[in-house]
Every structure is written in C-alpha cells, then in structure tokens.
C-alpha cells in the first residue's frame, strides 16, 4: 500500500490514457470517471473507488495499486483553482488509512470529482 504520509506529492495533470493502467482491476459494473498522472504515478477515479498507482523501479514494470472505496470516506476537502493559482487540491479522510492528499495542476474537473465523491460517500 502507498504510504500517503511519506509520499511526495506530485502535481497531477488530466490524462485520459492513464486509465488503461487500471483497466484490468475494474469490476464488471465499474467504469472510469477521470484519470490524472504525474511523470509516472497517477490517480484514477472510477464509479466505485479511487485507485492510486505508484510506479516503481527503473523500468516501471512494478506497480503498487491502492484501492480506496468511496464508501470509506468520512470527510473530504476541495480547494479550487484561482485566477493566478491554477492548482487545485483534494484531501480525503478514510476510516482505515487516514488522510490522502492529491494536488492537481492545470485543467481539472475538481468540482465534478467532488460531486461524484459526495454521491457515493453521503448515501
């Protein structure tokens, strides 16, 4: 599992192709909502969970997939981008693993992601 307390925060950018890295992990009734990547690592939002991917090693063939179901979110915080500060942030608090933080740069559907999280975490 990714150690989110000691993990360096990468600026994630929207990258629809990154979703292919987790396609084999998806359930039959699960689909991709959005995906973001840094240089090698990334985050994929699905209809059921968030999957964080930590690419390891020189060749990148070893990957750590951390699955975080929306139903385990107890609180979350969204910081939208501004006029001069184009970065946005998402902080999630999970009952089992604690705080998870993602930073996004550039165009990000942070409000849509927030609504999606609310749909699953609040019901």
TrEMBL record:
Residue intervals of the Bacterial Pleckstrin homology domain: 14-120
Annotated InterPro entries: PHb, PHb_sf
Protein name in the entry: PH domain-containing protein
Organismal lineage: Bacteria, Pseudomonadati, Pseudomonadota, Gammaproteobacteria, Chromatiales
């Amino acid at each position: 599992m990714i150690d989110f307390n000691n993990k360096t925060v990468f600026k994630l950018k929207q990258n629809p192709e990154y979703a292919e890295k987790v396609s084999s992990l998806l359930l039959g009734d699960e689909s991709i909502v959005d995906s973001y990547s840094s240089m090698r690592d990334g985050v994929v939002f699905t209809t059921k969970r968030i999957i964080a991917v930590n690419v390891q090693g020189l060749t990148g063939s070893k990957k750590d997939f951390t699955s975080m179901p929306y139903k385990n979110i107890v609180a979350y915080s969204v910081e939208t981008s501004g006029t001069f500060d184009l970065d946005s942030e998402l902080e999630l608090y999970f009952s089992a693993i604690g705080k998870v933080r993602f930073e996004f740069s550039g165009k990000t559907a942070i409000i849509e992601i927030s609504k999606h999280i609310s749909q699953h975490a609040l019901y």
